[in-house]
Recover the amino acids of this structure.
């Protein structure tokens, strides 16, 4: 899925605080609206499944969410690019929307399954290369004795140790 956000809205702080109580989310009532929203968002991300995910799970499937803004990791985007290219090369100054629709239908109808297969293969190779790169970085960090930069506990402990040295 492409992670596109289709619904936007703005809840009032009072409504968010009511939801906080409903779901037992621990956040101070005096907290600012962004802090309350961050706590709710964290709960939503962990506990609430989208309609698409629920439907897929009912049928024994898993939805893979791809990173936003990385069309090279979404095979459908490469297929769409191929189709748009074929249709675009047929453009003339007299082309109408009806012509475009007919050409799109024809391009999809004549799309070889090999093209789709190759787009999926390209994405799989790219993901495998990225995975290997990340594993190599992790191994290099391990060899140097460095932990993950995301480990805030080690950062906090290091800053406490340095402040103890200053005293």
């Amino acid at each position: 899925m492409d992670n596109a956000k289709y619904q936007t809205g703005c809840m009032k702080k009072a409504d968010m605080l009511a939801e906080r109580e409903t779901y037992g989310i621990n956040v101070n009532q005096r907290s600012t609206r962004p802090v309350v929203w961050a706590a709710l968002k964290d709960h939503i991300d962990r506990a609430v499944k989208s309609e698409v995910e629920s439907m897929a799970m009912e049928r024994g499937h898993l939805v893979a969410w791809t990173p936003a803004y990385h069309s090279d990791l979404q095979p459908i985007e490469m297929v769409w690019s191929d189709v748009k290219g074929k249709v675009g090369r047929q453009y003339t100054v007299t082309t109408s929307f009806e012509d475009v629709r007919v050409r799109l239908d024809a391009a999809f109808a004549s799309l070889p399954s090999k093209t789709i297969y190759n787009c999926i293969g390209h994405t799989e190779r790219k993901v495998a290369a990225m995975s290997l790169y990340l594993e190599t970085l992790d191994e290099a960090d391990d060899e140097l004795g460095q932990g993950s930069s995301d480990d805030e506990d080690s950062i906090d402990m290091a800053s406490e140790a340095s402040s103890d040295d200053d005293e």
Observations:
- Residues 151-167 have pLDDT under 50 and may be disordered.
- Residues 69-167 form one domain.
